[in-house]
């Protein structure tokens, strides 16, 4: 929640900073007069690094509490090695330069460049950059800059203009700036979606996908208002200046709602692979509400029937009606209400058109376990099977991929060989497992193929212990009890289910053959996703 609120405030800061400094850099003849806001702008410049500090604090706390890293070492590591820490430090430097040279920079395009650099730093530490590297970084930067220019200028003129003078000249040039910004937003949005959400419809099963869908639907009325302002800029007749200012305010409020949705998306699991994510994250309660038969894993499909089609048609009619009365009659209240109703109907129509599509089951029968699990990877990948445990027709397998990743996966034994289960993998990545003395993780699973449907939670703990050499078995101390698991080829796997949400802390004793404790491996975190470092 704190991260989400920080992101909302950060987006607002960027928008007002970009809007104000962009307008200040222009001639006073082509924009409305603005309220004096030096103090307000300086506060925003101070807030930017403070808001970028929030993820830094979160990472430091994680290192200290979950990995027992000393506080000073954790701070140094985050500041020097993590993009969040580096972005925070550079943002402080830029803000100090900005504040120190404020009288000189105000009214100069250099101020716009410095705001642009602050946005670049925020994008550098964003999730898009973390997931998709330079592609995600560029997409996120373009997205934020375009939004800041479009919405920032709108908000400043709508809420902080002293009068409506030069409003016609303003709408004339701003309309084309807005069109360019919207084009960049759409292109960069597709860039980010291709990297983070390649399965758009399937992502609706997750909270992240639901928020993304709402964000896209809410973008439609924003486009209507933008198109309306474009027409105002090219029309020869004089429009009501008070209503123009009010429409700017409405559009900026809509943008704030979208900012809020975007910020809350940062705390959700991005569905890079929906079926994989559903192993450990429950289907969104919204999707469960609309599905006649609740599902925990698999896929969904669109199947239009009379009711959703009717709702969609009514939504299109209301949307067209709202656009018409806004553009032709400038009726702000009626058009806003009609747009709100159309948004609700669009969403309802889409949700009522969704149905379960079962499992994406690989029906191929493979001769060996190795052949089955290797299908996920490149043909050149080296798969080393370490542990196999039979549980009726299911086989639990732990293996390494190129001596780097450690993976736990389920397969099914059939008469002629083995079949793969859909999305039945838990992966420990990061540093190569062959280079670690011990690498152990616990996944808290609430749905999917690793989940025991008779219980609310399933806890899957597996890992490799290369040192100490004399470890024969481990004893895992969960909040709900202690369990022993034998080592095979320096590897173990333990699965237990419970209706209780156990505490994250679960120390693991390394035992000799005679039961003597060699050392204790401290684990203070349980993984919630299907992949961890």
From TrEMBL:
Any GO BP annotation: copper ion transport
Naturally occurring in which organism (per UniProt):
Halalkalibacter wakoensis JCM 9140
Q: Where does the protein end up?
A: Cell membrane
Q: Name the domain of life this protein comes from.
A: Bacteria
| Assigned keywords, A-Z | Cell membrane, Membrane, Transmembrane, Transmembrane helix
Q: What is this protein called?
A: Copper resistance protein D domain-containing protein
Q: Quote the Pfam families the UniProt record gives.
A: CopD
TM spans, by residue?
A: 6-28, 40-64, 84-105, 112-138, 144-162, 174-197, 217-235, 306-327, 339-359
Query: Membrane topology per the record?
Result: Multi-pass membrane protein
GO annotation, cellular component aspect = plasma membrane
Q: Identify the residues that the record assigns to the Copper resistance protein D domain, covering every copy.
A: 170-264
